[in-house]
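Title: [Solved] IMP cyclohydrolase 3D structure

Original question kept below for reference.
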Amino acid sequence: MPIKRALLSVSDKTGIVEFARKLHEAGVEIISTGGTMKAIDDAGIPVTYVSDVTKFPEIMDGRVKTLNPYIHGGILAVRDNQSHVAQMQKFNIQPIDLVVVNLYPFRETIEKPNVTLAEAVENIDIGGPAMIRAAAKNFKFVTVVVNPKHYDEVAEMIAKDGCTTGKFRMQLAQEAFCHTSHYDDCIQEYLTAQLSK
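Solution (posted by the thread starter after getting help):
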């Protein structure tokens, strides 16, 4: 499946601007959120704000921004299922072929001295894991990237072939589920420690 549309939303912005530039040069439309969008826009790379896709503003201090059918429908749609395709057309949902997400720095937050429970809780990412898991589930059609080390490889594949390989997408999906699993483990271990105080 050709990669025509990408969603980039990263806490760790290492290499994201250069990756976005390569995607743009390959003809990929870029959707983004908050700080990631600003970094891409500041670099002069065309980018669409996620709220322009969802037709809804980021609300509740950013707690709710990507939890929307225009995002998750675009990620989860089974592209060779005519019912899914018909529903995409009916509701004007555009496919998202590449999801590049890494998560709020929960571990780094709780390692700070004197961090409060409230500060820790605000660094529990919700939309990020939801997008990662959705993209990883639909790896037959969607490429998910949670680690900047893959940016160059993904960009090269898109520049050369317009897409990624099925085996590579499955590999990235496995890595994505591992990433969210470790993230959740860190959260539950922290909360367990709080309960024992």
